[in-house]
Amino acid sequence: MSNRMAGGPKKCWPLIGFSLICLKMVASAKTAPEIPTIDQAYSKISNSITVEWATVPGATGYLLTAEDGDTVIETMVANSPGTVTGLKAATLYQITVRSISATGRSQASPPKQAKTVLAAPILEVSSPSPDSILVQWEAVYMAIGFSVSIMRANGLGRIWKENTTNTSLTFTSLEAGTLYTIKAYAWNANGTPGDDSTCNQRTSPPAPANIRVSFDSGALKASVSWAPREGAFNYTVMALSDSSELSCRTTLSACTISSLQCGTEYLISVLASNDAGSSKSTSAEALKTVACAPGRVTIQEDPPGHLSVAWSDVDLGDYYVAFVKSDDGLEVHCNTSLTQCNFLSECGFTYFISVFAYNKAGQSPLGDVFNYTTAPCCPTDINPVLVSSDRVEIVWSPVRGAELYETKAVDGFTVVECNDTAPACTLSALECDTKYNITVYSFSEVRGSNMSCTSQFITTAPCSPEIKSVSKDAYSTINVHWRPTNDDATYTVTAQGETGLFRCSSRGESCAMAGLPCGSVFSITVVAETQAGRSLPSYSVPLETVPCCPAGLTVTQVTQSLINVSWTVGTGAQTYVTVLESHTGQSKCLTHQNQCLLGCISCGVNYTVVLKAISATGLTADCTYQSYSSSACCPLGVKLYRLGPNGIRIYWQASRGSANYSTDLYGSKGIFTCAPSAGLSFCDVTEIPCGDVYTVMVSPVAETGLKLTFCPKKIYSVTCSGSTLGMVIYRGKRNAE
């Protein structure tokens, strides 16, 4: 098939000349086939014309030609009938046929006119509603009317057919969600129908019904379900609010819409869709989500122990529940339709606070969790464990919530502080005998100091006294004087030494102590005492008492003019002075020992004995003892006279003063003693053996009865021959042993 523009001789004539030359050549060689005769030409399709002719003997093919004045279209066919295609609809064509054989091509047959039928309308179909289909098309050239028919695509049911001169037609009362086949064609003025158009169109599905909405308040999502609809390919669930639109799409009969907003009212509708369109549910379901978590939460504690929680009102909130949980796990809550709740609180706790709004949909999402830490508790059992003149040590039990303790001692404008994490504090550099207002504040980093802690007054111990003087009166009483430095204090004076402690007390400025032992060294201190405590001792002042007098003193006559004085040790004494004094004179000795020899003693004289005990520092104790009488003088002129054969008279000359004497004769045959009668200066020894040498000693006898042995001894020989009377021979003198 070929197309060529009519009215183009340049293009046509070269083709015709060529055909003539060929015919001449063929004719010159062989005879051309016969010219066919067209029986009829007609059009059933808008782009073709069918031609029928009688068969030409010997023809192997035919050339069909269609001309409309503008174009020429040729088609080779094998036999009759033949169809020329590629034509224009509703157009009049001149149709000719040529037979072709091995010898050549015949001349064109006589022309036959035929007109192509109308073109098929181009349909646009849609389903504006579940029970209708709208068919639309553009105007068709040369058409004066149209026929449109519709039936179910499965062939069941009736066929609807409508004729119209319009370019659209709506079929109603159809079944929703059903596939239909639509056919349409145009006809011309002769009533000849043109080509038809066929298409399938499904009606849109029916609107979903029995919509049910289930809301999940925790996940903020809604599960929507409905009854499935015929012909629906898929469903779209839409949730529409004033500020947003959410949707979900599914081929099932249920769908879940997520990410819903709290505190929002949604209208839930379901759209059923297929390739024809969609239908929306006739009514929307209203859904109120849970309220949003309350905002602008404020927490106040006023007064302490009362916690006030307030928040802002929220949309769709019917009532509120505020939860307060302490850090020990205890939780309380309040239910209110207002925007404030009050709770009791305790010191030192951290409270975790959350507020929820409620409505029929459920509980609002969890908002911010607030924490509020109350002020730490105040110490209540403050106990001063040490109160001195310049410091106070206090302890207390740890309290809840305290990270640090601030202790302040205030005296007028003077403030002493100490900060520590331990429940104890030592306030130092305080003034003695001063009343301080002491407060222990608990502190936490979150809440700061609890300034509501109560204070207590503590008075420091009294100041240390200052000793002014220590003196001793004539009665050996110690008087201590000090400078008073405290109000309403009792002062205690302590004398401490190796022999013990001695005390006296006074509320004044002095105190007297008696009965301190002699020979001792004491340290004198003064302590002041008040209800607040005791002061530190004053600086000590040393005190030494006079040495003790020896408890015992012994005087022993060594010779007639020499005596030995001995004594016990006097405590505290380092040096002793011994003095024996009489009308005849004085004998004195100085020694570090506890005995002393005194010479130049007159016999038979009464002496006064005085001993002075002196300490290392020169303190002296005058010790007076009973008087001492020296021994009587040794007798002079001792002689022996014989009294018969066995008797001896010892005669002597008594010294000054009265004394008792004792006479001893020591011989190889025994010792013979005699004592004179009072007032006599001789005594007799009878039954003394003769013929022996005797040592004779006449000794004064002390008042104690002690016989003195320091008088001189004489030796006499007593013979047995001669006169029985007369002197005994004196043989010599012997020293006292």
- The CATH topology of the largest domain is what? Immunoglobulin-like
| Contiguous helical run count | 1
Tell me the number of structural domains.
8
How many extended strands? 65
Give the CATH H-level superfamily of the largest domain.
Answer: Immunoglobulins
Beta percentage is over 45%
Mind telling me the C-alpha Rg? 80 Å
Mean pLDDT: 87
Keywords: Signal
Protein name: Fibronectin type III domain-containing protein 7 isoform X1
Signal peptide: 1-29
Pfam families: fn3
Task: Provide a descriptive summary of the structure in words.
Strand 19 (234-240) and strand 20 (245-250) form a beta hairpin. The protein is built from one helix and 65 strands. The chain folds into eight domains: 37-115, Immunoglobulin-like (Sandwich), CATH 2.60.40.10; 123-202, Immunoglobulins (Immunoglobulin-like); 209-288, Immunoglobulins (Immunoglobulin-like, Sandwich); 298-374, Immunoglobulins (Immunoglobulin-like, Sandwich); 380-459, Immunoglobulin-like (Sandwich), CATH 2.60.40.10; 466-544, Immunoglobulin-like, CATH 2.60.40; 553-630, Immunoglobulin-like, CATH 2.60.40.10; 636-729, Immunoglobulin-like, CATH 2.60.40.10. The protein is rod-shaped and about 245 Å long. The termini are far apart. The chain is 3% helix and 53% strand. The strands form 16 sheets. Strands 1, 4, 5, 7, 8 and 9 form a six-stranded antiparallel sheet that branches. It has 737 residues and is mainly β. Residues 1-29 have low confidence and may be disordered.
